[in-house]
Give the backbone structure.
Amino acid sequence: MRSINSTMFVSLDGVVQGLGRPDEDTRGGFAHGGWGPRYNDEVMGRELGRGMAKSGDMLFGRRTWEDFIAAWSRSTDGNPFTAHMNAATKYVVSRTLPDADAWQNSILLRGDAVETVASLKAQPGNDLSINGSVSLVRSLHAAGLIDTYTLLIHPLTLGSGARLFEGAAPLTEFELTGSVTTTKGVIIAHYARR
């Protein structure tokens, strides 16, 4: 059985929306897009690189997959993250996408997210990682399908925006398996479901 890890960049007040760019995700009138890059440093790069050095496949919701296509699929910048993402098998969960041909090595999982991901998880194969895709993470968390979380907790509050766990999330306990603090005050915490 495969394991699923979710990596989420989150503010102190739980916001996960619009990390990278002002125009990344303005749903609901969110005006704080692009809050994350100023906190990047060598420590964060090294820790994220460790995660990407593990063999595995990627799992996306439709919206994040489409956003990542623009950012990563056509890049020739020599960034090791670019090479990893383009080479990895990418599963995209969607009820509305007609196909997953827009990004190499992508496979469409059509239908209900919990059912299709549970089926994929039960098959032999590489572990799965989710970067972003908060709606997918919420659904999979509620179904008990996410095994570990890597949370990059940023030292700011935003006051508005989509939060990691909005609404009812089931009681779930986690064990802290490791943590690192970056030079810019981001706490990178690794949690495993108990």
Observations:
- The longest strand covers residues 4-11.
- Helices lie at 42-53, 62-73, 80-87, 113-122, 134-142.
